[in-house]
């Protein structure tokens, strides 16, 4: 299966600061990357879809100015949580757009204090 | 809008038991269905993928079935072990993945 590397695996930051999460596809080129968020005891919810070389598509209710997505190359997509607040504390996970089967990064546990 | 439901939400069984996890979806026009395992604080591990044209897939002690017409899938785990304890998620693909809320499985030694 596809190998996906996501960093950091966990991060604690102060309220008001920004956090960048990286997602790399190690053994294939991903033109599309899906970013999900998972709150405790809940399932994964799609936040946005990034496309290499173009603007990301955000799901309803997700603030594009708060969750900045960059997909500058076929192997790297980043999600930056800007001006983070405690309610942004969650588990963020990426998944490259593989046509036949979904694979996921290891996830990033973000805690905003 | 596709909705995916998993029952039960939590399950606790003694080691060695066979068990079945259930997943249902509202829109049968799916491309495929995937079962994942998620350990606490970790990412998702793909267990089994069933294409829309298939009825089941097997991997070791795991067997997943798919009945598109009724909008149901089951994950059968044989001879459960404490190491099987995790949350199991099913997800269906129609354009994008839609996940169920998961079943938290605890296998007691």
What features would you describe in this structure?
The complex is a heterodimer of chains A (about 110) and B (about 110). Helices cover about 0% and strands about 50% of the residues of chain A. Chain A is built from no helices and ten strands. Chain A has a six-stranded mixed β-sheet, with no helix packed on it. By secondary structure, chain B is an all-beta fold. Chain B is built from no helices and eleven strands. Chain B has strands at about 5, 10-15, 20-25, 30-40, 45-50, 55-60, 60-65, 70-75, 85-95, 95-100, 105-109. The chains are: A mainly beta (about 110), B mainly beta (about 110). At the A-B interface, strand 5 and strand 9 of A face strand 4, strand 5, strand 9 and strand 10 of B.
TL;DR of this structure?
The complex is a heterodimer of chains A (113) and B (109). Chain A is mostly beta strands and 113 residues long.
Give the low-pLDDT segments of chain B. none
Q: In angstroms, what is the radius of gyration of chain A?
A: 13 Å
Helix/strand order of chain A, N-terminal first: EEEEEEEEEE
Q: Greatest interface and its residue counts?
A: A-B, 22 and 18 residues
Beta content of chain A comes to: over 45%
SSE run of chain B: EEEEEEEEEEE
Low-confidence stretches of chain A: none
β-strand amount of chain B: over 45%
Helix content range of chain B: under 10%
Largest beta-sheet details of chain B: 6 strands, mixed
Considering the chains and any ligands shown, give keywords for the structure.
heterodimer, A: 113 residues, mainly beta, six-stranded mixed β-sheet, four-stranded antiparallel β-sheet, 10 strands, B: 109 residues, five-stranded antiparallel β-sheet
Topology:
The complex is a heterodimer of chains A (113) and B (109).
Chain A: E1 4-7, E2 10-13, E3 19-25, E4 32-38, E5 45-51, E6 57-58, E7 67-73, E8 76-81, E9 90-96, E10 108-112
Parallel strand pairs in A: 2-10
Antiparallel strand pairs in A: 1-3, 3-8, 4-5, 4-9, 5-6, 7-8, 9-10
Chain B: E1 4-7, E2 10-14, E3 19-25, E4 32-38, E5 44-51, E6 56-59, E7 62-67, E8 72-77, E9 86-94, E10 96-99, E11 103-108
Parallel strand pairs in B: 2-11
Antiparallel strand pairs in B: 1-3, 3-8, 4-5, 4-9, 6-7, 7-8, 9-10, 9-11
């Amino acid at each position: 299966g596809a190998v996906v590397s996501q960093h950091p695996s966990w991060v604690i930051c102060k309220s008001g600061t920004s956090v960048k999460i990286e997602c790399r596809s190690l053994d294939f080129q991903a033109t599309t990357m899906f970013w999900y968020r998972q709150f405790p005891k809940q399932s994964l919810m799609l936040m946005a879809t990034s496309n290499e070389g173009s603007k990301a598509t955000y799901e309803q209710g997700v603030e594009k100015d708060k969750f900045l997505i960059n997909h500058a190359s076929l192997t790297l997509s980043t999600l930056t949580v800007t001006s983070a607040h405690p309610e942004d504390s969650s588990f963020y996970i990426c998944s490259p757009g593989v046509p036949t089967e979904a694979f996921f990064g290891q996830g990033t546990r973000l805690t905003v204090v | 809008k596709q909705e995916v439901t998993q029952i039960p939400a939590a399950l606790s069984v003694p080691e060695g038991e066979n068990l079945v996890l259930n997943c249902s979806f509202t829109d049968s026009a799916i491309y495929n269905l995937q079962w994942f395992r998620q350990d606490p604080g970790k990412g998702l591990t793909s267990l089994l993928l069933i294409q829309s044209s298939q009825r089941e897939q097997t991997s070791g002690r795991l067997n997943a079935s798919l009945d598109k017409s009724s909008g149901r899938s089951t994950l059968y785990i044989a001879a459960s072990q404490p190491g099987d304890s995790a949350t199991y998620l099913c997800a269906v693909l129609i354009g994008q993945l839609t996940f169920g809320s998961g079943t938290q499985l605890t296998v007691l030694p």
